Amino acid sequence: MKNISTQHERFNLKSKADLDTLSARLGITLPWSDDLSPLSRPLATKAFSLDNRFAVLPMEGHDSLPDGAPGELSFRRYRRFAEGGSALIWAEACAVTPEARTSPEQFWLHDGSADAFARMVEETKRAGMKATGREPVMILQLTHSGRNSKPRGKPEPLIAVRNPILDPIHQLGPEYPIVTDERLDRLQDEFTAAARLAERAGFDGVDVKCCHRYLLSELLGAVTRPGRYGGSYENRTRMVRETFGKVRSAVSRAFVTTRMNVYDAFPHPQAWGVAREEWRIPDLTEPLMLISQLRDMGLSLLSISIGNPYFNPQFNRPYDNPIRGFNPPDEHPAVGMARILHITRRIQEANADLPVIGFGLSWLRQFFPNVAAGAVRDGGMALCGQGRSAFAYPDAPLDIARAGALDPKKTCITCSLCTQLMRDARNAGCAIRDRETYSLKTPETSS
User: Fold this and answer.
1) Which pTM was predicted?
2) Which of 18, 77, 311, 389 has the smallest count of CB within 10 Å of its CB?
3) Positive or negative CA dihedral for 74, 78, 79, 81?
4) How close are the terminal C-alpha atoms of the chain, in Å?
5) Positive or negative CA dihedral for 300, 64, 143, 385?
6) Could you give the CA distance from residue 103 to residue 297 in angstroms, rounded to a whole number?
């Protein structure tokens, strides 16, 4: 029987007292600070310096040109992020080869598109300087979409291991081939070439992406895969470690980082960061080992995530409304947020001098800065990441700095329409707060 006290509910909080009552009912603890100044504190490392603790997380707009270069809406989006005051802008997933794209509208960095990316970096930094007096630090997320690849608009999966949970979602039969070790060897060099171009384009950092079950993330859980890239911990982490190392050696100015899943939230033996006996329990032993190894190789910033947006999106973005085809989850969004905060704290406390970016707080609307400030103050995370909420409210950092609060009429309402637009292969943005640019109507309801 479903636990009525923890079942899914939409946001209906008017005050901190309401949040306290909800937390008591759910049996969770959330950090809180009435003082938002922790979010305005600077952060300096050997690799970069930030004027505040706000980071825009990578959110795809699906608005590139056919050659993978940023399009008009791409330039607009990043200008808005910079003008809004976030000190760190982690640019969205960018394919390192044509086959790696999730759609024909996903970024793809190559010799022919590099100059356009350089213009995007230049315009973004100039917009930030004009609006705030400083340039944002910019990272480009380099990726291979793996089983989610659709470079020509139809599925062309490249899978690292067969998965009885995800294969049916992607309509893959038992005979569908897995990518060879030799192809993965070559892919390391393709990541490296793209990293050089990213540095040439002016990005301050490059991300070797290994989250959300895209190709490198899938390899981390490839327990049943034979060969050099599967089975043992050493083999499963080989692709991430070797690619990170090659990229680190190839760039001279840019720092190298990663956005990493630390808890997949589905059963072993296909999962990473889960207890073997019970997938609902995170086991961070292996993720912490890999983070330690990457730190020895020069990792100076870490963005973490959990779950899979194609299978269990409530784990990485608690929401009011799901996208089409998903039912409301069996847990309250605040329970999901408490899990995210707990896991982020465990990673941050185990790596006290490595800045870790928190995520997943949008459901709290105007109260998310208070929870984020409490987590930063208490050492539960170093930076507050905004994903979908940056689509809705790109100037949230400036409003917090100037007014000491957010405008409830501007916040993300976790309706999942931005994700739905992306799933429908349309330009993605906030269909509520930016409705003149992004249509509310989906193909099924358009007249």
Assistant:
1) 0.96
2) 18
3) positive
4) 42
5) positive
6) 32
What torsion do the CA atoms of 258, 366, 61, 210 make, to the nearest 10 degrees? 20
Is residue 161 within 8 Å of residue 178, measured between CB atoms?
Answer: yes
Strands of 182-298 (E only): list them. 205-208, 255-263
Looking at residue 42, the DSSP 8-state letter turns out to be: -
* Backbone φ and ψ of 368, nearest 5°: -65, -35
Give 70's DSSP letter. Answer: B
CA distance 267 to 416: 26
Say how far residue 314 (Cα) sits from the centre of its chain: 14
CA separation for the pair 314, 338 (Å, rounded): 12
Q: Are strands 49-50 and 43-44 parallel, antiparallel or unpaired?
A: antiparallel
Residue position matching structure tokens 């090659």:
246
Q: Say what the alpha-carbon torsion angle 319, 324, 330, 331 is, to the nearest 10 degrees.
A: 0
With beta carbons less than 8 A apart as the criterion, state whether 216 and 263 touch.
no
CA–CA separation, 233 and 35 (whole Å):
43
Q: Which residues contact 316 (CB under 8 A, 6 or more apart)?
A: 212, 305, 306, 307, 308, 309, 340, 359, 360
Measured between alpha carbons, how far is 239 from 234 in angstroms, rounded to an integer? 10
Q: Which residue has the tokens 């943005």?
A: 429
Burial of 424 (0-12, 13-18, 19+ CB in 10 A): middle
82 token code pair? 């910079």
CB atoms within 10 A of CB 49: 12
Single-letter residue type at 81: F
- Mean pLDDT for each 10-residue chunk of the chain (447 residues)? 72 98 97 98 97 98 97 98 98 98 97 98 98 98 98 97 93 95 98 98 98 98 97 98 98 98 94 96 98 98 96 95 91 97 98 98 98 98 98 98 96 96 94 90 37
DSSP 3-state assignment of 4?
helix
Rg, C-alpha atoms of the chain: 20
DSSP assignments along 391-426, one per residue: HH-TTHHHHHHHHSS--TTTS-----HHHHHHHTTS
- Say if residues 128 and 136 touch (Cβ distance below 8 Å): yes
What are the residues whose beta carbons fall under 8 Å from the beta carbon of 397, sequence distance 6 or more? 39, 52, 54, 84, 85, 86, 87
Q: Which two tokens stand for residue 204?
A: 């301050």
Question: How many angstroms separate the CA atoms of 428 and 284, rounded?
Answer: 33
For residue 286, the surrounding DSSP H or E stretch is helix 285-296
> Helices marked H in 39-180 — which ranges?
72-83, 114-132, 166-169
